[in-house]
Design a protein that fits this description.
With 178 residues, the protein is mainly beta. 11% of the residues lie in helices and 62% in strands. The chain has a single domain, classed as Porin, CATH 2.40.160. The chain has 2 helices and 8 strands, in the order H-E-H-E-E-E-E-E-E-E. The protein has an 8-stranded antiparallel barrel.
Length: 178
């Protein structure tokens, strides 16, 4: 169900982009953290782009970490041309995670929103490298369990809720389709 929904969103975005410029990207920082990701950006105005990034992982750095998430974003390109030079952006993120760490298991969700600033280096007509950084305010909620205990017995702790201030750093490789 989740996979078909995500594929449907990407197909809908590509159908709406019949006359616009479309770019496909991947974030190398997430790739180094063993979190595969894929993003699509559409030009929606003379100086504006709208993007969606999908990311997820099964096991990260040998730990039992499962996560899947979506990150929509809106960017304003100060230089006047999309995918060229300086941009300012607003982004959000929703994710579901299931982490097994030490003797504890954490199952929950997170929601984040933030601002970013960046620069796109044009390597050729089709290839770019984007450097961006910013901050997000993230809210998370999860349940904690002991790994080998019966969940319905004494293993469940109270829900953990919180808000954290997260820095965001991205180095993206971009291919402009048209």
């Amino acid at each position: 169900m989740k996979k078909s929904l995500i594929i449907g969103i990407f197909m809908l975005m590509s159908m709406c982009a019949s006359a616009q410029m479309v770019a496909v990207k991947t974030d190398a920082v997430k790739d180094l953290a063993m979190i595969p990701n894929l993003g699509v950006d559409l030009v929606v105005g003379a100086k504006h782009t709208l993007g969606l990034q999908l990311f997820g992982t099964g096991n990260c750095w040998g730990n039992k970490v499962e996560t899947i998430g979506l990150s929509p974003r809106f960017r304003y390109w100060i230089s006047g041309r999309p995918f060229t030079q300086v941009f300012l952006g607003v982004n959000a993120q929703v994710a579901n995670y299931n982490i097994e760490w030490s003797n504890w298991k954490y199952q929950g969700n997170s929601v984040a929103a933030g601002l970013e600033v960046g620069y796109a280096f044009n390597l050729s007509q089709r290839f770019n490298i984007e450097l961006s950084g910013g901050t997000d305010l993230m809210y998370f909620s999860h349940k904690e369990y002991r790994v080998r205990d019966n969940y319905f017995n004494y293993g469940e702790k109270a829900n953990a809720n919180g808000t954290i201030f997260c820095p965001r750093l991205e180095v993206s490789f971009v291919y402009v389709i048209r």
